[in-house]
Design a protein that fits this description.
alpha+beta; Butyryl-CoA Dehydrogenase, subunit A, domain 3; 3 domains; eight-stranded mixed sheet; globular; oxidoreductase; flavin adenine dinucleotide binding; Acyl-CoA_DH_C; AcylCo_DH-like_C; AcylCoA_DH/ox_N_sf
């Protein structure tokens, strides 16, 4: 079943808690010194520190995407993108994990009630959900045995639960929910950037899974989900998977660029070696270059925020984002990455080779942006091609509508 259902707009629907948005952004900004102090440790250990996990749990940012019915803070995609940018200025890996935990929380809020009762028994949990891989279920009495491997499990080191895709004995796609204690991690996340995300591989070997901890994708991957009764549905139940996932992730990339701009601007008083300029800020060429970068970064933020507002407005109307709207949002995401990429490369040029020393904050923003912007969520070339085909009326598109 496609997520692009013919759903009539809802006349009265609980929206997002806009009254909390500014406070959550302020809290995220306030923890920047802590995140900066832990960034090296996160990279060295390939996971977020317990202190950071506890602090972000305390200030509520891991509960932002969840509706009130599961104990969440019912925040909009706009609010989450703003918080993502603030966290990324302190530690991009932390911000990326934050987006994944919230994405998983939102998806878990659509699961059948019996699964939610177990997952949310002790409050809002931290959940990872690697989708790169497929498990296989073998029936055993009233339960099943699951075997499989799922890579890129961001946040897995600190997660309490994992949700993984599998095929039922009837070869139907399902989502299997398990405590992390039932699986093991294969440490495969050896990368140049986003090192602290702990995006390793979840491995299950003959894990016994109760039948009631398995949900059909056909029920939960649609908007609104069939598992949520109409009388308790809220705005976030009308979000579509990929636009909402990209919205938060783009916030992280904006934060990387904004953080780098601050670092480079702070060193504008240093000299330009082998030139007449005692200070970089004396150079007109420097003025133009840093100015262009600043404009590109601001433009990128505006595009992200505008896209988020459209995503949220549709959800508040009880309306599923259309194919045209999803195509447009994906194309805009590609443009955001292009703007930020150009700005970041120019800023690294302005900063010079000293910005690439392993102790320099600049190189972390640069590396983490390079990895994050190449996530499969984006793929700019495919995004532009899909946009062009849609514009010209060429069907079918090259991206499944459910993946837009």
């Amino acid at each position: 079943m496609s997520i692009d259902q013919d759903i009539k707009p809802v006349q009265s629907l609980t929206g997002f808690r806009e009254d909390l948005a500014a406070e959550l952004a302020s809290r995220a900004k306030a923890v920047r010194p802590l995140l900066e102090s832990k960034a090296d440790e996160h990279e060295a250990n390939s996971e977020l520190s317990r202190e950071v996990i506890d602090k972000l749990t305390e200030i509520g940012v891991f509960a932002m995407a969840g509706p009130a019915r599961v104990g969440g803070l019912a925040q909009s995609s706009h609010s989450m993108a703003v918080v993502a940018a603030e966290l990324a200025k302190g530690c991009p890996s932390t911000a990326w994990v934050y987006t994944i935990y919230n994405s998983c929380l939102w998806f878990a809020s659509k699961l059948p009630a019996n699964i939610q009762e177990k997952m949310f028994a002790a409050g809002v949990p931290l959940i990872c959900s690697p989708q790169n891989g497929i498990g296989h279920l073998v029936p055993e009495g009233d339960s099943y045995r699951l075997t499989g491997r799922w890579s890129y499990a961001t946040g897995s080191h600190n997660a309490a639960w994992t949700m993984v895709p599998a095929l039922s004995p009837e070869q139907l796609p399902v989502l299997v929910v398990m405590p992390m204690s039932d699986v093991r991690l294969d440490y495969t996340w050896h990368v140049a950037g986003m090192k602290g995300t702990g995006s390793d591989t979840v491995v299950a070997t003959d894990v016994v899974v109760p039948a009631d901890m398995i949900a059909a994708f056909s029920d939960i991957a649609v908007a609104p989900p069939a598992t949520v009764d109409e009388d308790v549905r809220v705005a976030s139940d009308y979000w579509v998977n990929y636009p909402i996932l990209r919205a938060k992730a783009l916030g992280v990339l904006v934060g990387c660029a904004e953080g780098l701009l601050e670092v480079v601007a702070a060193k504008s008083g240093s000299p330009i070696i082998y030139s007449i300029y005692a200070h970089k800020s004396d150079s007109s060429a420097y003025h133009a270059a840093i100015g262009e970068s600043a404009v590109q970064i601001k433009a990128a933020r505006r595009i992200v925020e505008d896209s988020c507002r459209r995503i949220d407005a549709a959800a508040c109307e009880g309306r599923v984002f259309s194919i045209e709207e999803r195509t447009e949002a994906r194309g805009e995401g590609a443009l955001v990455i292009r703007l930020l990429h150009e700005a970041i490369e120019r800023l690294m040029d302005l900063g010079g080779s000293s910005g690439f020393t392993t102790t320099a904050p600049a190189q972390r923003y640069w590396r983490d942006f390079a990895i994050g912007s190449r996530h499969v969520l984006f793929n700019s070339q495919i995004s532009y091609e899909q946009t062009g085909r849609h514009l010209l009326g060429i069907e079918p598109g090259i991206v499944d509508p459910d993946m837009l």
